[in-house]
Specification:
CATH topology: Alpha-Beta Plaits
Number of helices: 2
Number of strands: 3
Distance between the termini: 22 Å
Strand content: 25-35%
Number of domains: 1
Strand order of the largest sheet: 1-3-2
Radius of gyration: 11 Å
Shape: globular
Structural class: alpha+beta
Largest sheet: 3 strands, antiparallel
Helix content: 25-40%
CATH class: Alpha Beta
Low-confidence stretches: none
Length: 69
């Protein structure tokens, strides 16, 4: 299993984190999503068939685009 942390400036409250969790957990292969409002970060544990590109695309579609590092 792989893990990736994303910085998302659009996170403003626990509702934002909950929305992100619900959307990403619906993807086949996403196993865990943990988020922090204070840090504006989410960590995603995932495995095939999902990829980082699919996760990023989903975040952009739901209007929580990750900040490019």
């Amino acid at each position: 299993m792989d893990s990736k942390t994303f910085k998302i400036d659009a996170i403003g409250c626990n509702g934002c984190v909950a929305t992100i969790k619900n959307e990403l957990l619906a993807l086949n292969g996403v196993k865990m999503v943990d988020g922090s409002v204070a840090d504006k970060m989410i960590t995603v544990n995932y495995e095939a068939p999902v990829t980082v590109d699919v996760i990023v695309k989903t975040l952009v579609e739901i209007e929580y685009p990750p900040v490019e590092a």
